[in-house]
Design goal:
9 helices; alpha/beta; TIM Barrel; single chain; about 280 residues; globular; 12 strands; three-stranded parallel sheet
């Protein structure tokens, strides 16, 4: 890799791949882009739903929640750019409104910007009335699109949504289905809502990944421990033969992989334990 080009990208935030830089074999890179259909009530992520994306063995999708956050999101973006990797950010509307330049950077560098409500309620959206939950979700769509693109419409530019705390409800899912908005859970989480060292987080996520061998991975780009851990994690993905798949929205229905026999939701147990 050209050190001068890499250093410039890390300082200015320029995306290597989108700026015309050809990724090399030394970098992890993005293996392919998966078009995810959003028609018909797409719900994926084995922690919550009995299906995931149609990923092959040793394929992963990288996702980050709760940003953008000035202290940590730039570090996350730098790490991704250094390895020519694209990810999906499920952003909070009030954070988008506070840091629009970071959202614009995510878009400029080729990442997908999905949605994670406006306020991220202290418990979950299901703790609000149906009308209040709808209003919070819609306000988030508007804030995110205004920050990222300078304009908003009746429907979000990217119809991807992840519930805060995975706190969905049948009524809200049906509402999102009518709007052709896909709902994302996750297959593997880093548990980075718990305080730990970057080294401990790296060991934990690698252990979980080696059990499942594929899937949607959840991090939080608001966590400094994750920002410090990410470069080593991306290097480990390459060393262990994993491929990164980028996701974008498309028409039609999504190709999914059904849950294994005996599947049970882990989200409910975790939410109950955390009092969410």
């Amino acid at each position: 890799m050209n050190f001068k080009i890499t250093a410039l990208a890390l300082i200015t935030g320029a995306c290597l791949s989108s700026a015309g830089y050809a990724c090399t074999q030394a970098e992890l890179g993005t293996e392919r882009t998966l078009q995810v259909g959003t028609v018909g009530g797409t719900k994926v992520g084995l922690k919550t739903y009995p299906a995931s994306l149609a990923l092959a063995d040793h394929e992963v999708v990288l996702t980050f929640d709760d940003g953008p956050w000035p202290a940590t999101t730039p570090l996350i973006l730098n790490a991704l750019a250094a390895e020519c990797v694209h990810a999906t950010f499920f952003v909070i509307g009030r954070n988008s409104a506070a840091s629009p330049a970071l959202l614009k950077r995510e878009v400029a560098e080729g990442h997908t910007v999905g949605h994670h409500s406006f306020s991220h309620p202290a418990k979950t959206l299901r703790s609000l009335s149906y009308e209040a939950a709808q209003a919070d979700v819609n306000r988030g769509f508007t804030a995110d699109d205004m920050a990222a693109y300078g304009a908003s419409a009746a429907e979000p530019r990217v119809p991807f949504f992840r519930y805060p705390g995975f706190g969905d409800s049948p009524a809200l899912n049906d509402w999102l289905k009518t709007r052709k908005i896909a709902v994302f859970g996750t297959d593997i989480w880093a548990s980075d809502w718990n305080v730990m060292t970057p080294e401990a987080e790296l060991a934990l996520i690698l252990q979980r990944l080696e059990v499942q061998k594929r899937g949607i991975i959840l991090f939080h780009d608001t966590k400094m421990q994750t920002a410090k851990m990410l470069p080593a994690f991306l290097r480990q993905l390459k060393l262990r033969g994993y491929k990164v798949v980028h996701i974008e929205a498309s028409g039609g229905t999504a190709m999914t992989r059904p849950a294994p026999s005996g599947w049970q939701s882990e989200t409910e147990r975790t939410m109950n334990r955390l009092g969410m």
